[in-house]
Amino acid sequence: MRYLLPLLLLCTSSLFAQTNYYVSTSGDNANDGLTIAGAWETLQYAMNNAPANSIVNILAGTYNEKVEVNVSGTPGGQIVFQNFQTDAVIISGSGLGGNDAIIGIFDQSYITIKGLQVANNEQLDAQGIIVEGDCKGVELRENEVYNINFSTNPSDVATETRNSQPIIVYGSNASAPVTGLIIDGNIVRDSRTGYSEGLAVNGNVDGFEVTNNEVYNVSNIGIDIIGHEGTAAANDQARNGLIADNLVYNCKSPYATAAGIYVDGGMDLIIERNVVHDGQWGIEIGCENLGKTTSGVIVRNNFIYNNDDAGLVMGGYNFPSESGKVTDSEMLNNSLYHNDQLAGGIGEVTGEIAVTYVENCRISNNIVHANPPTGLLLYVDPVNSIGLSLDYNLYYSDALAEFEYEGAFYADFTAYKAAGVQDAASAFADPKMMLPATGDLHLTADSPARDAGDPATASAGPTDIDGEARVDNGSIDIGADEFVATLPVVYQDPFRARLVEDVVLLSWRTSAETGASRYTIEKSVDAINWENIAQQVAANAGERYEVIDAKITGTELFYRLRQEDLDGSFSYSDVVMVRLPEGGVTTSIFPNPAKDWIFVRSLRQLTEMRLYGPDGQLVRSAQQAARGKLFCGDLPAGSYRLELSSRFGQTTHLVVIQ
Questions:
Q1: In angstroms, what CA-CA distances link 64 with 25, 79, 397?
Q2: Are 43 and 25 in contact (CB under 8 A)?
Q3: CA 23 from chain center: how many Å?
Q4: How far apart are CA 37 and CA 27, in angstroms?
Q5: Digit-coded pLDDT (tens) for 558-590
Q6: pLDDT tier at 649 (50, 70, 90 boundaries)?
Q7: Dmax over Cα atoms in the chain, in whole Å?
Q8: Dihedral sign from CA coordinates of 578, 581, 584, 590
């Protein structure tokens, strides 16, 4: 193994451990909740009493409750409500009236809901999880929300007043936005939502992430980012958000055209690396409210296929008389295949891309492969949009290839391009994707999309749909996938980064290296601007490599590995990210102050623990593994210095003995 330590710095740190509590269907609220045997009985009791910096572990079972979180954590002291280990925990609203929501978080902060099944709420305005008001640092992670229906009768017809919401966030406080919101890794499924959505962020929400979720079998829009609905009296726009790496499918409305991912009134958003298929519209940027604006939205690096209507939709649908407008937004490097399948359906024939009224918007670097029966690649409404730009797109159809631009109809790409209205640098050719009929829209080696995109790539983002570098071989590809030629290095383990105590451990393993020259690790704080931090000479044989980065600050760090061959050719690994916890360190020493024993839990593989007294003399030492303890019951009260050693170096911590 090759081991490099170019950046390691020693540091001093301490972190108080979170207190664990337990809830069980066989528990008792008269217990202290600190052990499984002494677990609490009800979730509501836990949500009334859990202190900051605690974890409430919920044991397996069905909890027939509707609950509200009535406690808050603190910055660095999150309260986590989670399933215990891998236990199946169902919070069911079955048969319950009362509150609309199964889980309500109102004006509370630093709360995490994780690993729970939230199900079976069937009533008018039913909700699975709601976050509303002055909320900071709320995280919804790895939950499964289902059977949230506006009525108990599956045959009931939806109306504007018949709705349900599996996950809904309302920023209703005009002066205190919901911020630091994370909705990650959840499943939202099988819900009749009426005129509402599967997962929605609405109103005064400033700074959020909707990532890695799966949304399907919802009877309207899948994911919706909303503004201008009157949710807040001011600042009524969800903004500064990331909607990424989600899978959305089979979200269809019986009464209107529903998008898989929709922005209606949002601002300053990035929608990237999502897969949207078998719905109605794919991804839409719109603005329904009269006199209002949606702005600053970037839709990039998404796979969109097999939807009933258009794959990409942008604009105010009836501006200025009935809707608002979309401005300063972009749709870049998306791959569209066989959308607009339902000719004459709810949305009628809309083409692969449909544009209504926009101002200063760009549609570029997209693969647009039309559905043969309709063959309409592009529809631009005759509404005199201002500053609309289309270029560097790759169009194709197996049969008809029609364009409709501001009232003019073109029977093929040649006629459309000859008109000179848009797409001067665009082309018409089979994009040669891998297996598009199965949703694999990656490029083949001979695709004409390779290196054919707009050289102005900044808005396309740092990575493609797979997390690989967005530019390879010096030029960007058209579509969501950046084709990367295989170089003569075979990886046994991919490039990884993980936080180990107060350093980032970067590692990769190869099983074969032929003609390889060197590896360079690059680091970034924003995934845009990169710096070289370490280099390794290639072994030209199977080898394991490790590098330690000890210069870690901020909240997120991005890394990528550049592998270069002897002939000068090179490729980049996927970009990997490390999220740094508040407080920065992942060693916990508890209790502190201590009385009888000092316990240590660390992600490091500790080799030795040494305890020094107030006079600086060594009073205890032990050889320890990842978790250890030292007896201190016979030591006089005072302040002691605890030194922990590992192969990464040494850290020093202050411990008080009572």
A1: 10, 22, 53
A2: no
A3: 29
A4: 8
A5: 999 999 888 777 888 989 998 876 544 456 677
A6: low
A7: 91
A8: negative
Q: Would you tell me how many other CB atoms lie within 10 Å of the CB of residue 122?
A: 19
Q: How many helices (H) and strands (E) does the chain have?
A: 2, 62
Task: Look at residues 449, 403, 407, 452 and name the one whose alpha carbon lies nearest to residue 430.
Answer: 449
Whether the pLDDT of residue 140 is over 90: the answer is: yes
CATH architecture of the domain covering 487-579:
Sandwich (2.60)
Give the distance, in angstroms, between the CA of residue 147 and the centroid of all CA atoms in the same chain. Answer: 23
* pLDDT value for 446: 92
What span, in angstroms and rounded, lies between the C-alpha atoms of 369 and 377?
A: 7
Distance from C-alpha of 493 to C-alpha of 504, rounded to nearest angstrom: 17
Across the range 335-354, mean pLDDT stands at 81
* Contact predicate 311/283, CB 8 Å: yes
CA neighbor of 413 nearest in space, from 378, 446, 448, 363? 378
Average pLDDT over residues 331-347: 83
492-533 pLDDT, tens per residue? 889 999 876 667 889 999 988 888 889 999 999 888 889 999
In this predicted model, what pLDDT tens digit does every residue of 19-32 receive, in sequence order? 999 999 999 999 99
Q: Which of 325, 253, 249, 318 is nearest to 287 (CA)?
A: 325
Of 657, 653, 491, nearest in space to 583 by CA: 653
For residue 49, the surrounding DSSP H or E stretch is helix 43-49
Domains of the chain, residue spans: 487-579, 588-657
Give me 504's structure tokens. Answer: 């980032």
**pLDDT tens digits for 17-66?**
799 999 999 999 999 999 999 999 999 999 999 999 999 999 999 999 99
CB 105 within 8 A of CB 127: no
Asked if domains 487-579 and 588-657 share a fold, the reply is yes
Q: Does domain 588-657 have CATH number 2.60.40.1930?
A: yes
